[in-house]
Structure formats: structure tokens, C-alpha cells
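Dear colleagues,

As part of the handover before I leave the project, I'm documenting each prediction I ran so the next person doesn't have to rerun anything. This entry is a single chain, and its sequence is reproduced below.
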Amino acid sequence: MRLAGPFRIVALVVTVGLTWIVASILLGGPGSGFPRIQQLFISTENSVTAEPRARKYKCGLPQPCPEEHLAFRMVSGAANVIGPKICLEDKMLMSSVKDNVGRGLNIALVNGFHLPLDPGVSGELIEARAFDMWAGDVNELLKFIRPLHEGTLVFVASYDDPATKMNEETRKLFSDLGSKNIKELAFRDSWVFVGAKGVQNKSPFEQHVKNSKHTNKYEGWPEALEMEGCIPRKTTAS
């Protein structure tokens, strides 16, 4: 029992000594400040190289469009829950946030002409509207697309049901705008399309997915479609 006191003193001295040695190693020795601790933090920061963020261009495209082209990106509605989006030249033309989309066909009309004396005109939104193709009046849609002027770009994104109210005249008008899938468009199909008044050939900007219980992504609806690209401006000397 008499030796307990000396042993405690020795243990205390050893503990203090070890603490001093460890502190000296970490702090880099007397008068050197905290270089080694700083090096630990610096080396950790330098070892983690931030991944370069992929640059996004107009409407989120991965690459810029060539000159005299309009950048666009559009997404059809997802089931009857998430509304469609239509973006052109980094401007959102239609979306749920803008509160201008609805069930059926969502259509944005855009001036596709490039006027040499007024280049700002090309790509301007003329009008954007949603047409209910389940319970609406198809004549409203016909009044909207019948009087289109030559060169008008037509952006279409489906939401929920794009086709129940569609008749032969409607399909003919969209076919004349360049659609190749309009004849097969049916109840709750997903469809995105960019056409133009006066085109000679079928549009390269179109996607269509059939509503099928065997392939549907959502219960009762196919997957949403996303399409992006670059549309050449149409030049007129007028």
C-alpha cells in the first residue's frame, strides 16, 4: 500500500511525457506552430478534386446549336400527374409553373421566320394554349391551327389523353404540318412533335409511344417522352 503513491506519480509523469511527445509530433515541434496539422487538412482538400460540371447550353442542351438554329427541349406529360414542358431558346413557353398547360394537347405557336432587317422576330412566341382532348370541343383546336401562316413553328406536347376528341380533319392538319405518327395517335398515348406550316417533308422532330398495358411505365399510361434538338431558321427576304 505504501508503494501506491510513487506508482501514481510515475504513471502521471509517463502520461504527461507521452502527451507531450504526441503533441510535439502533431504540432511540428516548438516554435513551428501548426504546420503538420495544417498539412493534414490541406492535403485532404487537395486530394479531392471537384468533378467538372458539364456545361449546359440553351434549354439544357448538352451542346450548343449551330448559328441560325433554334434550340429547343420538350417533355410530354407523365400520366395525369406531371404536366408537360416546352422550352425554346432558353425560354419556357409552356409548363406547370407558368400555369398554361392542361390535359390533352399543349401547343405553342412560334414565328419561325428569320427576317434580315429584324432578326429578333424569329423564335418569338405567337400564342400557347392547351386543348382538352377528352372532354373539350375539338372545334377550338381546329380554329387554332387552321389559319396558321407559312413558316409558323408548331410545338406539341401531350398530357394524359391527346386523341379521344380528334377527328379526321385534325389528323389531316397535323399531317400537313409534318407529323408521321398522327394517324396512329390514340387514347392516352404519349406524343411530342415539332412541325411547321408549309413543310414539304415529314418532320424529324417527333416521338410517339403507344398506351399499352404490356409496356406502360405508369398504371394506365406509357412513359413520358423527352425530345431536344436544333431547328433551322427559315429565311425570307420580305
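The chain is about 25% helix and 25% strand. The helical segments are 4-27, 35-47, 138-145, 168-176.

All the best with the project,
I.
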